[in-house]
Amino acid sequence: MIKKINGSDIYVFLWMIYMLQDILYSSGIINRIIQLIMMVWLVVVTAKCLTNRNNSPILRSTIFLVLMYCVYGVWDIIFGSAAITSSGTAISNYIYLQNSLNSLLPIFLFYYYTKKGKIDSNRMRIYVLVILATCISCYYRYESYAMSKWGNSENVNNMSYMFISVIPLLFVYNKRIVLQFLFLCLIMFYTFIGMKRGAIAIGFVAMMIMMYSIVKGSRPQKRVVIILGIVLFIIYMFILVTTLVNNSDLFVSRIEQTISGDSSDRDTLYGKFWNIIAEETNPIYFIFGHGANSTVRIEGAYAHQDWLETLVNNGLLGTILLFNFYFTLCITALKQRKRFPVIMYYSFLSITFILLSKTMFSMSIQGMYMYEGLLIGYFAYHSSRHNDLLIKNV
Fold first, then answer.
1. For the chain, what is the mean pLDDT?
2. Which of 391, 374, 373 is nearest to 382 (CA)?
3. What's the angle, vertex CA 178, arms to CA 176 and CA 181, rounded to 5?
4. Domain positions in the chain
5. Cα(373)–Cα(344) distance, rounded to whole angstroms?
6. Reduced DSSP (H G I as helix, E B as strand, rest coil) percent helix, strand, coil of the chain, to 5
7. What is the pLDDT at residue 224?
8. Is the distance from CB of 317 to CB of 288 less than 8 angstroms?
9. Which helix (H) or strand (E) element contains residue 193?
10. I need a labelling partner for 313 at 20 to 30 A (CA). Which of 116, 179, 299, 374 fits?
């Protein structure tokens, strides 16, 4: 039972209201006020977290990234020129810093409230329901926007990426196997109909990890129920894919593009940015990069690949800090094999895999979802405890 509302509950609620702009209310002053409140909350709680002694390697690697993005973001606000995309859209100079803090500071916030004993499995089950409802609403908002803009009945929906990161959260329903499979069905439905090839590939692997963890962590007397659930889930996935193949021209064309190696011009974009890096002669630019949003200023588009984006914007130094963050995340996750409950351990591995995979063809580090920060903060705290882990209801 949820005994008392705490700071993490309020933040999740504010996030939901902010994400539902243009659904519950028209975007404008309301969402800006909510964004400001969230940002102040994040900064205050992060400051509290950092003033208290902690021994989490994840937090230490994260704070280096935060400091780097703050330096580059503030410099861009003060001295940066206009960043305009190839379509003519101007990107405000404060967006770089805002996105960076919104992505990384939730790790500290949820670490702080987990350490205070405010976040447990009961509370996280409520969060999952809120998150899924928000993801579905955002999905249909984008559908409405895409249909009004392009007039197509079928569109590639970028919101499908939101769903795959919910999969690792399902570990909190480990005693409710039926719900786990139902949520997996829902998540994979929106992932596939969204037709983002990267999301489908990552989501499929994350789904396999989750199902393996369900089997691995189950008691022998429940194995029959779990095997039945897996069989039914496989049948469901077969029907879903078959239906899309038979009824969606866009889905078929996306499959054909993948088979033919069509990367939606990403290879061309990657080549341009790689040439910029390889042909750089100024050692200052090579070490420190060209500054925030330089990819947009140079080519009129983001790199859609975190490593190239970071090399161009933040140079070799920034890339080392980014590598340190993901290396620390991977090593910390792998070390929990004998400490974490089975399904929790594989959940940690799953969110690590999702985030690391997204760096290869998306914007992961500056586009992390709130609930990705929730999981990292939660796991960061429990992985830093010296005593044997005992988590009730997980």
1. 90
2. 391
3. 110
4. 7-383
5. 16
6. 70, 0, 25
7. 82
8. yes
9. helix 177-194
10. 374
pLDDT tens digits along 333-389: 999 998 899 999 999 999 999 999 999 887 788 889 999 999 999 999 999 875 444
Q: What mean pLDDT is predicted for residues 45-71? A: 90
Distance CA 316, CA 117 (A): 39
Residue 308 in contact with residue 178, Cβ under 8 Å? no
- Over 80: is that where the pLDDT of 151 sits? no
- What are 140's two structure tokens? 């249909």
For 18, residues 6+ apart whose C-beta sits below 8 A from its C-beta are 31, 34, 35, 38
Residue 15 neighbours by CB under 8 Å, 6+ apart: 38, 134, 370
Q: So what's the pLDDT on residue 388?
A: 46
DSSP 97-119: HHHHHHHHHHHHHHHHHHHTT--
Assigned token pair, 4: 């008392």
CA distances from 212 to 171, 226, 277, 338, 344 (A): 12, 10, 41, 17, 12
Distance CA 45, CA 109 (A): 6
Q: State the DSSP H helix or E strand holding residue 90, giving kind and residue range, or none if neither.
A: strand 90-91
Q: What is the CA radius of gyration of the chain?
A: 21
Q: What is the mean predicted confidence (pLDDT) over 27-55?
A: 89
C-alpha 97/C-alpha 116 separation (Å) is 28
- Closest to 240 measured CA to CA, from 165, 173, 184: 184
230: which 2 tokens?
């897996």
**Kind and range of the H or E element at 83?**
strand 83-84
The residues near 90 (Cβ < 8 Å, ≥ 6 apart) are: 82, 83, 84
The bridge status of strand 83-84 relative to strand 90-91 is: antiparallel
User: Which whole-number Å values give the CA distances from 241 to 52, 252, 262, 300, 387, in the listed order?
Assistant: 50, 10, 21, 36, 46
41 exposure class (CB count in 10 Å sphere: 0-12, 13-18, 19+)? middle
